[in-house]
Amino acid sequence: MASERYTIAIVGAGPGGLSAAARAAETQTSHILLEAAPQLANTIYRYQKGKHVMAEPGQLPLRAAIGFEAGTRERILDTWQRGITQTGANVRYRAAVTAIEGEQGDFHLKLGDGEVIRAKHVVLAIGLQGNLRKMEVPGDDLPDVQYQLDDPDAYSGETIVVVGAGDAAIENALALAARNNVIILNRRDEFTRAKDGNLRDITRAIDGGQIECMYNASPKAVTALERDDPSRKRLHFQVKTKDGLAEVLCDRIIARLGALPPRAFVESCGVVFPSEDPAAVPSVSPRYESNVPGLYIIGALAGYPLIKQCINQGYEVVEFICGRDVEPADEGLLRAKFAHVPGLTKVNLAIVQIRSNIPLFAGLTPLQLREFLLDSEIRTPAAGEAVIKINDYTNTFFSILRGKVYIQIDPDNPNRTVELGVGRFFGEMSLISGRRRAATIIAGPDCVLIETPRRSMNKLIQSVESVRRTVDETFLLRAIRMHIAPDVPDDDLVEVAHTARIRQFAPGEALFEEGDPAHSLHLIRSGSVTVSHEIGGRDIVIAYLPSGNYVGELALLTESTRTATVRAAVATETIELPGVVFRELLACFPHLETDLKAKAQERLSASARQRGVRKSAGNMIEFLVAQGIGEATDVLLIDESLCVGCDNCEKACADTHKGTSLLDRRAGPSYASVHVPTSCRHCEHPHCMKECPPDAIHRTAEGEVYIADNCIGCGNCEQNCPYGVIQMAVKGEPEKPSLWKWLLFGQGPAPGSRLHSEDKSQAKKAVKCDMCKDQSGGPACVRACPTGAAIRVSPAEFMAIAR
Amino acid sequence: MHESYVSYRNFFFLKVAAGLCALAILVYGLHTPTEPPNGGTWLGYTLGALGLGIILWLAWFGVRKRRYSGTQDRLVAWLSAHIYLGGALVVIATLHSGFQLGWNVHSLAYVLLMLVIGSGFYGLYTYVAYPRMLAANRAGMTREAMIAEVAELDRESLVLADEVDKEAHRVVLQSIEETVLGGSWLEQLFGDPTRRSASAALNTSLDAVKKKIETRVARGVPQLQQLEDQEATAISFLAEHMIADGGGPERLEKITRLFELITRKRALVERIQRDIQLQSRLAFWLHLHVPLSVGLLAALACHVIAVFFYW
Lengths: 803, 311
Known about the structure:
The complex is a heterodimer. By secondary structure, chain A is of the alpha+beta class. Helix content of chain A is 29%, strand content 23%. Chain A has 5 domains: 5-130 and 261-321, 3-Layer(bba) Sandwich (FAD/NAD(P)-binding domain); 145-255, 3-Layer(bba) Sandwich (FAD/NAD(P)-binding domain), CATH 3.50.50.60; 333-465, Jelly Rolls; 493-613, Sandwich (Jelly Rolls); 628-802, Alpha-Beta Plaits, CATH 3.30.70.20. In chain A, strands 1, 2, 5, 6, 7, 8 and 17 form a 7-stranded mixed sheet that branches. In chain A, β1 (5-11), α1 (15-26) and β2 (31-34) form a beta-alpha-beta unit. Chain B is elongated. Chain B is built from 13 helices and no strands. The two termini of chain B are 54 Å apart. Chain B is mainly alpha-helical. In chain B, α7 (166-177) packs antiparallel against α10. The mean pLDDT of chain B is 83. Helix content of chain B is 78%, strand content 0%. Chains A and B meet through α19, β35, α22 and α23 of A and α4 and α5 of B.
């Protein structure tokens, strides 16, 4: 029996526990760190070799006695090991805590071997990964059923069933498929939870037959087979499917079903959970103390899953236990952000004011708001300054903390403006549609604005329901006002907006079909659509409409059935307005009807012209839409009847981009002599921007999507781009080839040669077309084309001409 | 939306070149030198200087084409000007010579100039005509994709042939081994793409089968179904022959499929050969134009030095 009573006993040597122990050692506080595994940071230890570990949120400063920055698994583990050794922290490995009893001042921690550790305070930093979710069917703990996969290369020639449809399951299945016969078991009929890149890879592997997938299937029972079973397999796996019970004979089952809070254990310590939800975590005070005095909870178990947060909390919890007050790690940064705002020098005050002034953020916890503010900029524009310029491709979101702004509603007359006051927000249109700014917005006197980048705002919209709802409602109202009913008073529009709903369409899905009865009008919120007619038994596309347009008004105005079929060209969202409400609106505001009818007439005659015109134009639109041009803002098109295949476009690209051509002229499909090479389209909602850990992909005000220097080379964007236009290239600046040396003396590579770095060990970085944004004269590929075959155009422009 | 180098800015450089030629002809007509017209008169010097300037500027195209950064204008403008101003040189240089030609370095320069211009115009013809033919022949596929498909067809047909019998396997393997793409530059430029792709071994073998069958037909066994293509006829007969031999419908299916694969491959190989041919013809003229230009510059240097030396 141990006689020593420690001041702090820390349970779990993950990032949080490690940090707490290191800080305790540094301040010479008596402590013990208890770890069930034989090494530090077991979860990270079990990551695959060489895995890149992120240090998010990037803005949050690290405050700890041990180091941590983004890097490989090995480097991070090494840093921590050294940190623990240097600080002289007291760690006990293979010490699984089975029970915690007692109270503040005298806790008893029972270990697996029966030993009891006594401590005045306990810090629970056990995370979630120690409690992996099991299949919960008979036989789920047989020896060949596992819930983790350390090294996929350790298995070969086996039949392995991977259970799960998340990223971990997909990544395991793909890695195992190289040397094994893999079956993946998906509870649903598609992989909805996975990252885009993983989704694409698994779909490809299933279509290509490398992996077999059982959809709508869930485990029923597992039994071990006899050693001499004729099948020579080890497990008999019963699976429930739509068509009844299926039997699978396999060697191994790997179920990747996530992790759950180790509720039973935590509850046995006296800690109360706020709800019955299995994913619920116990609530803690701002000082990380649970409802049991003296028992502190930090890290993932307290709801903070990011490594950096855990490390900071490990440090802070020791400070709190020792009676030292620390301000949050981000305090200094936030103070700096507000430093230039008169009267808002205290962060807490600013946060109170934001929550009371801006209703949109009232529902955020202070922690969420702090994180949100860390990503945002506080701007104090001078009166009369343009905050947003019309037709810019910027996509930040603005909230008004003080003062007001003026929206110029008439591009031709800057004096016609609408005022927006405290608590309102703007910029959501470009954020949602991915298109250019629709209006110029001018700052009023003494105005204070919060400008939030696209990614942080999207994160907030996705994670906080009240924010999503408010932004959507405002977007709806403004979109209807802007495109359909400019002069209708707000009150009338609010009612209209309430009846509208947001609809989502998959690429190719019909909003409505020719001949359908007309019940509603669609305003395209994001994405784009094609309009087609049936001519001679075939659907002929006659028009392409990007977001900001509306469709379906014709049938409502003429009270007829649908005159054309409208399909989503890419993933598209529309605002659907019921026909009844629309007609009521027209009845109240007759001038609206006149306006809309005039527009409709224009469209009708255009469409009538189209019906007579050659069908190939329609086919061209159809072809381009099939190439995903529907979501492009600027695309490289090559006229094959002019292209002589000199590759000067590629050479120009390589010459202006460190020896790597970012376009592949030959690749890509063609139709009627229009060739769409593999080259960036600068999508409205760039797929590459999703899941960029350092948020390195941005769009300039002119629209170019580019990758900034803080790229970490993780390859997510390369995987996520459906058009294959992103490459991983070695960093560094190769020497530019000399034209004269090459031309006159044949020395060195020719200008425009593909240059490879000698140093293979150098880290790679993602590269893509930036439309030569840093060069005057426009894209080098177009400038260097001798025959005029290569052009860069906006698809809407091009398709208007194809018509 | 695409603006071609031919019609660039509504034939702006054609108009410039035509204007230049008209002006030169007009002045030449009005000019009455004391001696017969030649490069030594004031007009001769003027035209010579103008011609030299244009030639040097045209040669600069080789440099400008490779300057990818630090340029504002589009290369298509340069090419358009290159073609039309190059054409104008025919008139300017001829007037400069005063129609006096002989066996000397001056006339050599003139002849080389005409050859350079001639090769240039041949190049223009290929640039106008071939891209369309290339695109039509490729029909949306790249050469790499076509070659990959040939390899895939080869692989499939080999597997299938193996399932038919040893003889079929041997024949198909031989046909694969004998498939040659490209060839020497002469073959690439002038060869017949359809002839070179057909595998001699396959044809011989199929011919033999056909003969065998025909003798049977003469005896009235299976029906000779005359198809358009010789190979098609042979294979279809081969199939019937197999049935007659008791091969069964499965074997028939395999043979029919094999036939399909081989025919598809043949068509594809023809397309690749044609692609190679068109591409090499498209690039070939430059192998005349550039060396001749270098020769021209050398001759021109001699011409200018000689003129000033013997002033």
